[in-house]
Amino acid sequence: xxxxxxxxxxxxxxxxxxxxxxxxxxxxxxxxxxxxxxxxxxxxxxxxxxxxxxxxxxxxxxxxxxxxxxxxxxxxxxxxxxxxxxxxxxxxxxxxxxxxxxxxxxxxxxxxxxxxxxxxxxxxxxxxxxxxxxxxxxxxxxxxxxxxxxxxxxxxxxxxxxxxxxxxxxxxxxxxxxxxxxxxxxxxxxxxxxxxxxxxx
Length: 201
Ligand code: AMP
Prior knowledge:
Elements: E1 3-7, H1 14-25, E2 29-31, H2 32-42, H3 45-56, H4 62-73, E3 82-85, H5 91-103, E4 110-115, H6 118-132, H7 139-162, E5 166-170, H8 175-187
Parallel strand pairs: 1-3, 1-4, 2-3, 4-5
Helix pairs in contact: 1-8, 2-3, 6-7
Bound molecules: adenosine monophosphate (AMP).
């Protein structure tokens, strides 16, 4: 089964494409942003702790997000296949993810990296803010999140490129087109969904 990481700037389509990919491959879609927002909504101790970070558009501390991810990946069956969206976001998180994977004797199949021009990202996020009222989709916070993405996440690209699992995909365009590009890029690496793989003979 496939174990995918999804890397994209805020507004880059991680959530949307993550759900499509998870459905196609029949694996759970795990979004750290969604898990965190759920904790905030339920006002759990973690939710109360991370709420100010989310509202400012700051990354939450590595140890908190690591605990959350390890808990979720520790759920029975999940280790076999998943689409992980929004994690890792820093080089330290990537190193921890690598150590964790080694410990569990598994590898990540690929890291899908969606690229979208900055003006388009801002447009999408402002639209989403208007449509959903998501509290971190405001002009100032958007700028901050994009700057932070470039600073924290860019080094991850080199990390995964060196390991030859980075798959760059143009994320600018209609949702089905981007989904098709991702599918083609993964198929080229032998990562088609199990039901679409050529059978023996
Ligand atoms: P997202 O839904 O992926 O855009 O994430 C929303 C917010 O959740 C981010 O702006 C961060 O505050 C927080 N967050 C999500 N994933 C992580 C992560 N891997 N590390 C740190 N903070 C995160």
